[in-house]
C-alpha cells in the first residue's frame, strides 16, 4: 500500500526535510505520525499523495511506482486518496452539498449517483441537515466534517489527514476521531499527522515518530511520547 525505501527530500532552498525514510504501511492500517514541529511530518505525508516528489529513493503507493508516475496521471492516483487539512480548504461560496458534489462531478459521475453519494456521506458525518449551508455558517468541527465527507465520498483506499484536529476544541476533536474510526473499520487506511497527545494515548494505534527527517520510533499501539 505505502512502501518507501531510502527516501530523501531536499527542497529547492537546500533544506533537507527527510533523511532516509523506510516504511511499510498495509491496507487498512490506522497510523499516527508524530514528532516536533519541523521534523518532516508534513513532507512525509505529502509524498504519499504526490504533493511533493522525493529527491531520491523509491516510493510505491497503491502499487504505483512514484518515480514512473507521469504528472498527467497524478489525478488517477488521487482518486484513491482522500486528503484532509488542518484549515479544511473548503470552497467558501459553495454550499456543503456542492463542496462535496464537486469532488464527484470532476470525475463525471451521473447526477443521480452524485446526489445519492453526497447524501450518504453527509449522513455518515452527521450533517445531512446542513447540506444547504455555506462553510461560514458552520462551526469549525462541522466544517472539518464536511472536509472529511469530501475526502471520502469517492470511497478512497486511504485517507491522509495533516493535523485534522489542530484548529478544533477537544470535544469536537473526539467527534472527528469517531468518524475516522468508522471509516477505518470499513477498511480505509488512515494516516494522521497529529500533535494531540490525548488522542494518540487514548485511541491506541500504530505510532510513527519522525525527528530531523528520520523515523526514530515505529510502534504498534504506541504512545505519543512527547510532552505538550
Ligand atoms: P513538520 O510537518 O514536522 O512540521 P515539515 O515537513 O513541514 O515538518 O518541514 C520539515 C522541514 O522542511 C522544515 O525545516 C521546513 O522548514 C522545511 N520545509 C517544509 N516545506 C518546505 C518548502 N516548501 N520549501 C522549503 N522548505 C520546506
Ligand atoms: P429531500 O429530498 O427530502 O430534500 P434529502 O435527504 O435528499 O431530502 O436532502 C437533505 C437536504 O439536502 C435537503 O435540505 C435537501 O434540500 C438538500 N439537498 C439535496 N440535494 C441538494 C442539491 N443538489 N443542492 C443543495 N441542497 C441539496
From TrEMBL:
Compartment(s) of residence: Cell membrane
Family matches, as Gene3D superfamilies: P-loop containing nucleotide triphosphate hydrolases (3.40.50.300)
A GO term, aspect molecular function: ATP binding
Pfam hit, one: ABC_tran
Source domain of life: Bacteria
InterPro entries named among the record's database cross-references: AAA+_ATPase (IPR003593), ABC_transporter-like_ATP-bd (IPR003439), ABC_transporter-like_CS (IPR017871), ABC_transpr_LolD-like (IPR015854), Cell_div_FtsE (IPR005286), P-loop_NTPase (IPR027417)
Record's keyword terms, sorted: ATP-binding, Cell cycle, Cell division, Cell membrane, Membrane, Nucleotide-binding
Residue stretches making up the ABC transporter domain: 2-228
Any one GO BP annotation for this protein: cell division
Membrane topology: Peripheral membrane protein
Cited PANTHER family: CELL DIVISION ATP-BINDING PROTEIN FTSE (PTHR24220:SF470), IMPORT ATP-BINDING PROTEIN (PTHR24220)
Similarity annotation: Belongs to the ABC transporter superfamily.
Function: Part of the ABC transporter FtsEX involved in cellular division.
Subunit field text: Homodimer. Forms a membrane-associated complex with FtsX.
Protein name (Swiss-Prot/TrEMBL): Cell division ATP-binding protein FtsE
Source organism: Virgibacillus byunsanensis
Amino acid at each position: 500500500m505505502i512502501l518507501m525505501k531510502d527516501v530523501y527530500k531536499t527542497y529547492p532552498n537546500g533544506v533537507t526535510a527527510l533523511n532516509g525514510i523506510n516504511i511499510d504501511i498495509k491496507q487498512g492500517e490506522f497510523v499516527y505520525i508524530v514528532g516536533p514541529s519541523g521534523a518532516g511530518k508534513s513532507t512525509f505525508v505529502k509524498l504519499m499523495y504526490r504533493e511533493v516528489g522525493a529527491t531520491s529513493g523509491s516510493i510505491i503507493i497503491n502499487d504505483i511506482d512514484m518515480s514512473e508516475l507521469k504528472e498527467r496521471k497524478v489525478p488517477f492516483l488521487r482518486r484513491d486518496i482522500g486528503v484532509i487539512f488542518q484549515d479544511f480548504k473548503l470552497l467558501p461560496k459553495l454550499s456543503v452539498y456542492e463542496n462535496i458534489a464537486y469532488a464527484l462531478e470532476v470525475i463525471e459521475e451521473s447526477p443521480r449517483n452524485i446526489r445519492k453519494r453526497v447524501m450518504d456521506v453527509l449522513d455518515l458525518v452527521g450533517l445531512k441537515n446542513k447540506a444547504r449551508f455555506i462553510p461560514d455558517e458552520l462551526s469549525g468541527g462541522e466544517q472539518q466534517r464536511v472536509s472529511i465527507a469530501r475526502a471520502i465520498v469517492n470511497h478512497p483506499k486511504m485517507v491522509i489527514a495533516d493535523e485534522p484536529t489542530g484548529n478544533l476544541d477537544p470535544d469536537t476533536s473526539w467527534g472527528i476521531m469517531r468518524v475516522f474510526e468508522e471509516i477505518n473499520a470499513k477498511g480505509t487506511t488512515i494516516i494522521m499527522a497529529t500533535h494531540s497527545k490525548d488522542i494518540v494515548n487514548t485511541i491506541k494505534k500504530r505510532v510513527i515518530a519522525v525527528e530531523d527527517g528520520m523515523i526514530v520510533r515505529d510502534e504498534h499501539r504506541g504512545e505519543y511520547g512527547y510532552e505538550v
